[in-house]
Amino acid sequence: PFRFDISRIFTCCLPGVPESFSCVCPGFITVISISNTTLIKELQNQPIRILLIEGDLTEKYRHLGFNKATNINTVLESMRVQQDTTEELWTNYVLQVLIKFNVNLVLVQGNVSEHLTEKCIHTKRLVLGSVNSSVMQAFAEASGAVQVTYITQVNENCVGSGVSVTFWRSIPSDVIDRINVITIVIKTEGINLVTVVLTSPVTAQMQTKEDRFWTCAYRLYYALEEQKVFLGGGAVEFLCLSHLQILAEQSLSKRNYVCSGWLPDTSSWLASSLALYRSTVLKCLANGWHKYLSTLIYNTASCSSEFEASTFIQQRLQNATDSGSPSSYILNEYSKLNSGIFNSGISNKLEQIPSIYDVVIPKTEAWRRALDLVLLVLQTDSEIITGLGHRQLNSQETEGFLF
């Protein structure tokens, strides 16, 4: 079955590039300095061997949890060699390892020594830092490479092969000069990795565009995980509003029955209070839904004012009640323009609008938190008015108290 693995999707943002360059491509796409253009030209026509480093690729890096042994000094520490000399010795050792195992591409999850990066460029080797752990895992699976923490752990079995490095697309030279970076794609056969390239000529809009993409991607991911969705566009909220009004009317008729003195257990003042005020509480909950939908319609420019939106909702509620089946009415209205129950008949736009769906769990959890707050307020009011805590009420008296 199809599985949407969001952990293998990445974004590459290119501000200052026309929107026509936005696309989805297999492999890992990233930006590097324009000074590496010559190096990429030399690497793109040859098979690449890859090395994966989990931590930082610096001389002073030690893995998390490392504790230096006490009363032990290394030879370099006892000689008090200068820092520059130590860095140079370490850089030369790293280069020897890369040359020994014929490695031309190094992906590092953490930071990379700038001095080492410059040395590698001169020897036709590309080192990329701050690479996502899922990218590292994808290349490990596809190329056969094994991730290591230190360069001293590298052996022939740790090096992967079959990787290619090339330029992503032919971006106009004037654009490249303006953004001062080049875009490359790194991939290998069978890699489970996709990069979404997001471009925008306006730099200030880039972050908003990326946030909108991830919002959409995660909604799709959770919808596929749950294998169910709500009708969007206010359809489910409208159904809740309709259902609450029906419950409020039913409670109102029961309250009239209680006020007539025909309650079976007239000695229970708590039961009488429940019957008297249940309809009021339900009406307040319905008013909350009504206010939410009015604001929703007003914010989508479907109505010129919230009063007009409220009147429109009231008309739809009456139509749903007259139909005899609010759920069937909502489904029929929702499918008219493939958009939402509040879009048909209130706008002069005739174009088709895509169907809107909402993810189930986030929406129901938001409702649950709101209802918990309402119940907390009701319980607090009850304790203030009656002077009785929840534990002081027996089960018979509290039957139906918390609904």
From TrEMBL:
Kindly list the GO molecular function terms attached to this UniProt entry: ATP binding
InterPro entries attached to this UniProt entry:
BBS12, Cpn60/GroEL/TCP-1, GroEL-like_apical_dom_sf, GROEL-like_equatorial_sf, TCP-1-like_intermed_sf
Q: Name one GO biological process term.
A: photoreceptor cell maintenance
SUPFAM superfamilies cross-referenced by the UniProt entry: GroEL apical domain-like, GroEL equatorial domain-like
Signal peptide segment: none
Q: Which Gene3D superfamilies match?
A: GroEL, GroEL-like equatorial domain, TCP-1-like chaperonin intermediate domain
Q: Name one Pfam family in it.
A: Cpn60_TCP1
According to its record, what are the GO cellular component terms? chaperonin-containing T-complex
This protein's superkingdom? Answer: Eukaryota
Protein name in UniProt: Bardet-Biedl syndrome 12
* Organism, scientific name: Mustela putorius furo (European domestic ferret)
